[in-house]
Amino acid sequence: MSQPLEWGRRYLMVRPDHFRIDYVINPYMSTQDQPDPELTLKQWDSLRQAIVDAGGEVEVLAQRPDSPDMVYAMNLGFATADGRAMLSHMRFEPRRKESLTAADWFTGHGFALGRPGSDGVGPHFESGDAFVFGDSLVVGYGPRTEAEALKHLAIEWGIRVRGLRITHEGMYHLDLPFCPVDSTHALVYPAAFDAASQAELFGIVPDPIVLTDDEAFAFSANSIVVNETIIMPACSPRLHEILTGLGLRVVVLDLTEFHKAGGSARCLTNPLDFDLTAITAPGG
Ligand code: ARG
């Protein structure tokens, strides 16, 4: 029997007042295709409102003018309901200033801060690669997070960590090919991973909902579940039937301005309430 997720009711979002494409660090970005500021804000606010309508809470952080990708709050750090936060150590230098503001925010809100590395020293870790699911922290590594960071998380917090090696450059964070839906179901796009990690993925997820190429590249797995609502940037009729069959209310939002820099609903929201209880290793 599946149970609702234990997390995903409280989020941090960054108001997109300085969202631009100044540099290219993933296959979706082009400096020739800039977002429209007004539409950006409208789409962002529809997401914030949908979370509130679903019974969730949203904390809002102002965007640094020097950090255009900071709108993708999912990457600011991995935060837990009991007040721990692992700050991201971004792979690409232009995103590293975000961590200065994120560190102040987490500390100012009572989170005890850990960091796998900073300023290019130590393993890279981007929190868009990490989810609690089943008995472990599932972490994608390869394009952004480095394998070394998984050891850091396991040791610092005494938790079980399972790594999935991402090999698809268009699926550069785990939140693009993987979305926990409830305690046993997750949206998955196996082609994002190497063969060993595909097998591992099917070991981790008891009831996988496998996405087609079209669904995956419409960012359908970059969705968030808030109570009994799933908020998605795209949902095919086939997926709609599966998700409503699980008792979910499906809300589809136009977030296409944010797709221009390679992110959608999940990337724009950072859960503040991950629960590590079930994944704490014996003696950890
Ligand atoms: N332009 C951003 C980057 O490449 C997009 C981040 C998307 N966020 C996510 N959690 N997948 O870093």
TrEMBL record:
A GO term for molecular function: arginine deiminase activity
UniProt KW keywords: Hydrolase
GO biological process: L-arginine deiminase pathway
Lineage, uppermost ranks: Bacteria, Bacillati, Actinomycetota, Actinomycetes, Propionibacteriales
Keyword Magnesium appears in the UniProt entry: no
Any Pfam family matching the protein: DDAH_eukar
Taxonomic superkingdom: Bacteria
Protein name per the record: N-dimethylarginine dimethylaminohydrolase
SUPFAM superfamilies assigned to the protein according to its UniProt record, in alphabetical order: Pentein
